[in-house]
Amino acid sequence: MREFTFSEKATHLFSFPVIVAALGYFVDIYDLLLFGIVRVPSLKSMHLDADAVGTTIINYQMSGLLLGGILWGIIGDKKGRLSVLFGSILVYSLANIACGFLPQINVGDKASIYALLRFIAGLGLAGELGAGITLVSESLPKELRAIGTSIVAGFGLLGAVVAQLTVELAGNWTIAYFIGGGLGLLLLLLRVGVFESGLYKDIAKTSVAKGDFLSFFTNAKRLKKYLRCIAIGLPTWFCVGILAMMANQFAPEMGIRNLQPGKAIMWAYIGISVGDFASGMISHLLRSRKKAILYMMLFTLIGVSLMLGGATRTESGYYFFCAWLGLGTGYWAMFVTVAAEQFGTNIRSTATTTVPNMVRGLVPVMLIGFNYFKPSMGVIFSAAAVGIIVFALGIYATVSIEETHNRDLDFTE
After folding, report:
1. What is the second-level CATH architecture of the domain 9-196+211-400?
2. Which of these, 38, 45, 43, lies nearest to 53 by C-alpha position?
3. Computed from CA positions of residues 218, 221, 224, 225, in that sequence, does the dihedral angle turn out positive or negative?
4. Structure pTM?
5. What's the rounded Cα separation, in Å, for the pair 257 and 253?
């Protein structure tokens, strides 16, 4: 394995593609989590049910992510990584600006319009992470790949913290939407100077099939790898989509007077950001993607068990555990990097973009299970039931997937 000098490491890790990908993911996370943060105040201001309508809108946004992941993934392999970086950010930035105008839209069914706009935002948001991680993975030396992608995700995930602070400081949820959309449009201008991946350029003019999404389902070995990649990420969005976004539903069961989903999301993402920076270094030191992910997943499982097992009875205690779960699920960048490393250049963007969005797209399924168990089991035990299934799948997938540390990415399927 090649040893790099400090100067060489800095040159690679703070190159323009890494910086632009990190800023892009920052805006992506800001806009992705913004609805979860302003869900209650925005819906109440329009006289809508924060829980019932809010769950429907989250499901629409996550469905948009699921479909968008497939769309942008295919475009990334057929037309190039940069086409996704430009197109996706334009779509979700305009959708977020439109959300800010909702109070001024004079129609009766604002819930449907809100859901449609979050669906469109989800379509756009789906392309950002996969394209960014693919571009960075293909641009950096294999020895620095884990650290580079962890920098992208670690910095990017701070977007959730800034989103919460923006809502608090602005005092109006519509301003937070305008700021998010404006940041995206500004970043669009910065991306003009980014160059296409060299590996993609090498295969762009060849006859090899590119962006074939169905190829994941026509080969048994490839399908197993694909499903394992998805399963590894499930615990991350169980923690965010249920334990953080639905924090207000746990308050009465835990004897806590009030829990704010926005603050729960903020503390979770502070933890996730730190965890993502750490995951790259852990993987680098252990020389293993699998070990880094497994240890962090088990750390998260301990936190979930304590949280739902009665270890917290205060608002600050709940936020502490949200930060704990965030720290543990900070393997998000590593999980997406593993997806990029599992597949050839001709379907790498499709894999890297669809896998995280399949995970996000399964949040509605988790919420269906959560809501199904609630009437008979209560909020805490229904969350535990969903959690058991999710972590069992995640641990099995992590243990059984191929190790990809230091794998050369110059290959096709």
Report:
1. Up-down Bundle (1.20)
2. 43
3. negative
4. 0.83
5. 10
